[in-house]
Design brief:
Layout: E1 4-12, E2 21-26, H1 30-36, E3 38-45, H2 52-67, H3 76-93, E4 102-110, E5 113-119, E6 123-128, E7 131-134, E8 163-168, E9 174-178, H4 180-197, H5 201-214, E10 221-230, H6 236-241, E11 257-258, E12 261-269, E13 274-279, E14 285-290, H7 301-314, E15 333-337, E16 341-343, H8 344-351, H9 356-375, E17 388-391, E18 396-398, H10 426-429, H11 436-452, H12 483-492, H13 504-512, H14 514-520, H15 526-529, H16 531-554
Antiparallel strand pairs: 1-10, 2-3, 3-4, 4-5, 5-8, 6-7, 6-9, 9-10, 11-12, 12-13, 13-14, 14-15, 16-17, 17-18
Helix pairs in contact: 2-3, 4-5, 9-11, 9-13
């Protein structure tokens, strides 16, 4: 069952010439509602600024459009804060010499939780079981005569400070957003009585706005109300915010039936995880991943496993394994499809490095997968041939999200260095924060090794403190490589992150335009490409010349 809400809104100009309030209710399609939630917002433009009505309307327009464009892996508060900070700069720059000012209260209801963003003097209330609770603070000066002077508002200061509040939803409760033209004349007791008298949200909002003007309000009056009719079952996004206490599965045995899965055998066991091969009722093979008993009491182990699953759901597509929806899951695990094929590490071991044609077919697929991850604000952090499955169906799939990272959601242990040493970017060894270029470096090392069978800086062992010197050009090992591809790989594995590709899309574009780029690029001197051969040639020529001189002298 999905979250079910009912909404109401009302706004009236009152005795003023213009209504500078703005209200917005966004009810997106079911999929987007599940991942991003429902949005309600109320803005009250400041009349003393250049154009308060414009400020209010533009703020709600930006909020409604930009919030739903943020990555699904961003926390709600993170998404709101990013876009509000950006819009605050717009308000300051577009007032014709004066800032555009507005207050704002925005409420997002997603799953079983709410997130409130508030700045200014609109008010947000929660009404439940006859009790009215104010959730917001009025950002006004408290000195006599200044009670209506804002000390915080959108567009007022370069450094925007927004109040955020998060909490659990309860079935039957209501959330009310009202402008100061309502609450300042009605007071909390009248608002409570009106909410008690009017069950239907639109009728309640009209009653609040009408009562405010009848009571003598000289300001615009606006109200937005949402009623929580039914709560959904816990979904994965809520689980990430508040971990459900699912028990770990018992140790599974061959032939055992577990929650509808037929267990075939244990595929892998480590300190971090247990991996089983299972079959569904149609005898299709799947991989079930869970935690070993030794990690039961680790506070972050369960959330990390669920986050790994959530990442895979956010990037569903041909470059990643399919996940099972698990509607009847009662234990802590997830299940993904098993595909016939071999990893690229197995291919290297059994068949050696890839031919140039095969490489040029697989490389763009890897970059498209990495690009999709990065657009979702996810870093893989363990890209290597072992985690790339070349399926019998011809697809290349990126596996194992156990080390994946999303800023704002993921947590790393202090001084940890996730990944496989030979594929970890040089700046990560120096303590740099995770970022996209580190994934691109790992992809570069992977593609370099698939072509040459070697690592660009040599193999790096665990606990080793590596030194990153000059990279051996891949054409040294593969003379059949075109010069543009040599340059492309050298850029991908540069020790300085600023010299690498900035995005997967930039790298993909260079691959696709490689031949044309080769015509425009300056060919590297032979001495730079093959210094050993050049000096050997010079030495041989010198020896031959000396022998000829010796023969002439003796003759």
């Amino acid at each position: 069952m999905a979250l079910q809400l009912s909404f109401g809104e009302a706004s009236a100009t009152g005795p003023r010439a213009e209504n500078q309030d703005a209200v917005r209710v966004v009810t997106p399609a079911p999929g987007l509602a599940a991942s991003k939630g429902f949005l309600l917002a109320l803005a009250d433009g400041v009349s003393q600024c250049a154009d308060g009505g414009l400020a209010a309307r533009a703020t709600l327009q930006a909020l409604a459009l930009d919030y739903y464009a943020t990555p699904e892996t961003w926390a709600v508060a993170q998404s709101l804060d990013r876009l509000l900070v950006a819009h605050n700069r717009w308000l300051q720059a577009n007032g014709g010499g004066q800032p555009l000012l507005t207050t704002l209260s925005a409420l997002v209801l997603r799953g079983r939780r709410f997130t409130l963003a508030h700045v200014g003097d609109c008010r947000v209330y929660r009404w439940y079981d006859g009790q009215l609770e104010r959730l917001s603070e009025d950002h006004v000066w408290e000195q006599p005569g200044m009670q209506h002077v804002l000390k915080r508002a959108m567009g007022l200061d370069q450094h925007l400070v927004v109040d955020y509040l998060e909490g659990e939803l309860r079935q039957g409760e209501r959330y009310l957003l009202v402008s100061d033209g309502v609450w300042s004349v009605l007071g909390d007791s009248t608002i409570r009585n009106l909410l008690s008298d009017e069950a239907e949200p639109n009728a309640a909002c009209r009653a609040l706005v009408g009562a405010a003007h009848l009571a003598g309000s000289q300001d615009n009056a606006s109200a937005v109300l949402v009623s929580v009719e039914n709560l959904p079952d816990n979904n994965l996004a809520d689980t990430l915010a508040q971990l459900s206490h699912w028990p770990l599965p018992p140790r599974l045995r061959e032939g055992q039936d577990f929650e509808g899965w037929q267990v075939e055998r244990l595929l892998a066991e480590s300190r971090q995880s247990l991996v089983y091969r299972v079959r569904d009722t149609q005898s299709r093979r799947w991989i079930l991943k869970t935690l070993p008993e030794t990690r039961r009491d680790e506070e972050q182990a369960g959330p990390a496993l669920l986050l790994e699953e959530w990442f895979l759901r956010r990037v569903a597509g041909r470059h990643f394994p399919e996940l099972h929806p698990l509607p009847q899951r009662q234990h802590l695990y997830y299940v993904q499809r098993e595909y016939a094929g071999q990893t690229l590490e197995e291919h290297l071991r059994l068949s050696g490095q890839l031919g140039l044609t095969e490489w040029l077919d697989l490389a763009p697929r890897l970059l498209k997968a990495v690009g999709m991850l990065h657009r979702r604000n996810i870093l893989h952090r363990d890209i290597k041939p072992e985690n790339l499955l070349w399926g019998d169906d011809g697809e290349l799939r990126l596996l194992d999200f156990g080390l994946a990272y999303c800023p704002g959601l993921s947590r790393d242990e202090q001084h940890s260095l996730p990944g496989t040493p030979s594929y970890i970017a040089p700046e990560a060894f120096a303590g740099a924060e995770p970022e996209q270029r580190q994934d691109l470096y790992a992809a570069g090392v992977t593609l370099y090794r698939l072509l040459t069978g070697h690592y660009p800086y040599g193999e790096i062992e665990a606990f080793q403190h590596p030194r990153f010197g000059k990279v051996t050009p891949p054409s040294r090992y593969r003379p059949d490589l075109p010069a543009w591809l040599d340059e492309c790989l050298l850029r991908a594995v540069a020790s300085n992150p600023q010299e690498r590709f900035e995005t997967a899309e930039e790298w993909l574009l260079q691959l696709e335009q490689g031949e044309r780029a080769a015509l425009a690029s300056r060919p590297r001197p032979l001495l730079e490409r093959e210094p050993l051969k050049v000096w050997r040639g010079v030495a041989l020529a010198s020896l031959l010349l000396n022998l000829m001189l010796l023969v002439l002298m003796l003759g």
